[in-house]
User: Fold this.
Amino acid sequence: MVGYEFELLDRMKKLKELFEDKDKFLIGAELVTTRGILQQEGSKKIVRYTEDLIADERVDWISVTENAGGNIMSAPDGLGKLIQEKKKNAIIHITCKDMNRNALESVAWKYANDGFDNLLALTGDYPIDGYNGVAQPVFDLDSVALLKMLSNMNSGLQVNGRKPGSHIDLDKTNFFLGCAVSPFKTTEAEQMMQYAKLKMKIEAGANYIIPQLGYDIRKSHELITWLQENNLSVPVIGNIYKLTGGVANIFNKGLIPGCKVSDEFLARINKEKKSEDKGKKYFIELAAMQYVAFKQMGYKGAYIGGTEKFEDFAAILERANELKNSNWHDFVPELTNPAPKEFYLYNEDSKTNLADSKNLNPKITTYKKRKSKKHVNLNYRFNRLVHTMLFNQKSPGFGLNVFKYKTLEKKSFKGLKRFTYFNERMIKAALFNCRECGDCSLPDITYLCPQSQCAKNQRNGPCGGSSDDRCEVSERNKDCIWVKAYSRNRYFDGANVELLPEQPVIKNSELQDTSGWSNYYLGKDHNAYKLKKKK
Assistant:
């Protein structure tokens, strides 16, 4: 085990090179930007903190958030430039909530031109405010699709040229891409879908993982165990957020999507905050124990947030250094804070009270016998039957419909084509609340429309904001569509059938208000690659 003596940062090394150093445990710090001009009085506090972090040679990188929590903030490259000028690595967060794919690509080129190669690709939190009212969210892409686009930019993006049929190969970028995942979900459906989507993110190009917030070390151990069991050798950075009594209460109420503090843990925190220092020493100790646990567990580094003063950040590192010879297993009772009826993928190891990689939770194999029927209604059963008969590419009905829609493309059948599309719209509107996107994901999500039933239009798995199976957007306080899809898939197809697609689904808006059935049968939508495989 490598010692805890803090090494001096070689400021000329890129973050990618630091990740490749097998003996180095990395230290990152999180900055949440402000709403205002950085040079003016209201933002001087965050600038001073940034400068202190830059000067600390123990810090390997500083991460800058983008409109965290759905709030309006200054763009992350403002502080990023200050970090970069001082030869410190910066990770810039890039999210999908406020920009469509064109704007995301444009800002990615800007970051590449400005030398910001380290990006953390996120779907983003649903907006909660905005100028003169709450902003309209975008979510044209999700985190998987964004990673795919950025990865393609690294390979050399090919775009259409001015002449019909011509192409231009753009310069290659050099992005070092990170992604997020939540190992702290309380239900099986939520947790398993988080892992399934993480696998897609890695396949789409993620080079490292920073989990969302949580305070259950057994869950943190499950994440790294799951990666090892699935032969996914992607480094993980442990997320440490220094709590206060007020922040813990906010997390407990679910007011910040994806951040978890259990009732039992909150009760202990409320006792600690009655101390003379309002629990500050306890919160520093807790963060330091997490640091030690992450390092000895096999995480690649620690990502420290929730510190607005450098003295608090430094106190965590100093206390962690004092605990360097401790056995992290001694901290497990203090760091294990599950919610009631918490789901764990692996059974508990009786010796360590952590994940037993050789002992999968038996609930995984008995899911069908439990209460999944509430999502398996008559409508869904009927749609499965219709899909098997008409939409399955191996069915006789598939070939007949290919012929039918090819025929309708002829000019002489223009009126019949409009009539056929009218019938399709009526059926899909009645059964699925269809929004006529033309690039239909109904078969991908067990006949649940992401356009009308998901606040973020998530087509490659769930976002990280759900809680206890429920959507994070309060106005839509209902089960996440991916929870429903998981239940339906498991009920009929068992534990070993993948729900998510082989390739990221990226909706083509050009198909809006056209026949989704025609686009499917004629290979115009996101399923086109399946038809090519069939041939």
